[in-house]
């Protein structure tokens, strides 16, 4: 079965508000996590990553938070824009040469 | 212009036919991957290759075959044994399995 999942399959947010997309992972051995954004009909695009020795990492308008105690990952998008509308995937990786494991994704819809 | 190129963008398969999806990268990445994505679903790993002339089965390898004769190329063949091939196919590459995966634009395969 999948070891990565999401709490909310869809999320609607008013333009300008902040968005929070959640992800639960079940493999406590995972030490690397990535968030991807996928627009309709396109390939996933890297947003931000975080290693397990950190609990927070910030990018441009995005922040990833990692809570290893409860095996939870979140992506925060500040001042959400219509261009942020997409499906967001989290992915986890255990140490070694095994590939990433992807969650099912959350669709973010931005209401103008 | 560096990146991952998938072709064709759209592909149609007749009953009993094998079809091959192309994936080329000029990023000098060692590892390459093929994923299948069904509507509203996440990414499922078909095959991956960490180095030339070597590849491993992913979670849903049945009905598919790959080759890795060159570092830049990782073609995927959807064989007639794959009874439900209609899906969006994504190719990715990374410097190594421990690094970020970058994706191509995808090939949408349909059955006639």
SSE map:
The complex is a heterodimer of chains A (112) and B (112).
Chain A: E1 4-5, E2 10-14, E3 19-25, E4 32-38, E5 45-51, E6 56-58, E7 62-67, E8 72-77, E9 86-93, E10 101-102, E11 106-111
Parallel strand pairs in A: 2-11
Antiparallel strand pairs in A: 1-3, 3-8, 4-5, 4-9, 6-7, 7-8, 9-10, 9-11
Chain B: E1 4-7, E2 10-13, E3 19-25, E4 31-37, E5 43-51, E6 54-57, E7 64-66, E8 76-78, E9 87-94, E10 102-103, E11 107-111
The overall pLDDT average of chain A reads 91
- Broad structural category of chain A: mainly beta
Give the termini separation of chain A. Answer: 37 Å
The description of the largest β-sheet of chain B is: 7 strands, mixed
The radius of gyration over CA of chain B amounts to: 13 Å
Biggest interface, residues from each chain:
A-B, 22 and 24 residues
How many strands of chain A? 11
Short description:
The complex is a heterodimer of chains A (112) and B (112). Chain A is an all-beta fold.
Structure keywords:
heterodimer; A: 112 residues; mainly beta; 6-stranded mixed β-sheet; 5-stranded antiparallel β-sheet; B: 112 residues; 7-stranded mixed β-sheet; 4-stranded antiparallel β-sheet; 11 strands
């Amino acid at each position: 079965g999948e070891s990565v999942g999401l709490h909310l399959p869809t999320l609607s947010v008013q333009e300008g508000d902040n968005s929070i997309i959640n992800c639960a992972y079940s493999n406590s051995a995972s030490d690397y996590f990535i968030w991807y954004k996928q627009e309709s009909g396109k390939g996933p695009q890297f947003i931000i990553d975080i290693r397990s020795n950190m609990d927070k990492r910030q990018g441009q308008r995005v922040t990833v938070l990692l809570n290893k105690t409860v095996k939870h990952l979140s992506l925060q998008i500040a001042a959400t824009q219509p261009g942020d509308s997409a499906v967001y995937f989290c992915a986890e990786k255990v140490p070694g040469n095994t590939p990433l494991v992807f969650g099912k994704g959350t669709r973010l819809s931005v209401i103008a | 212009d560096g990146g991952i190129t998938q072709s064709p963008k759209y592909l149609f398969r007749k009953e009993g036919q094998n079809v091959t999806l192309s994936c080329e990268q000029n990023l000098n990445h060692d590892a390459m991957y093929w994923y299948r994505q069904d509507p509203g679903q996440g990414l499922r790993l078909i095959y991956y290759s960490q180095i030339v002339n070597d590849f491993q089965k992913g979670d849903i390898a049945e009905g598919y075959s790959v080759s890795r004769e060159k570092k830049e190329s990782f073609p995927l063949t959807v064989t007639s044994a794959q009874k439900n091939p209609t899906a969006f196919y994504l190719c990715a590459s990374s410097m190594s399995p421990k690094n970020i995966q970058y994706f191509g634009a995808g090939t949408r395969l349909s059955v006639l």
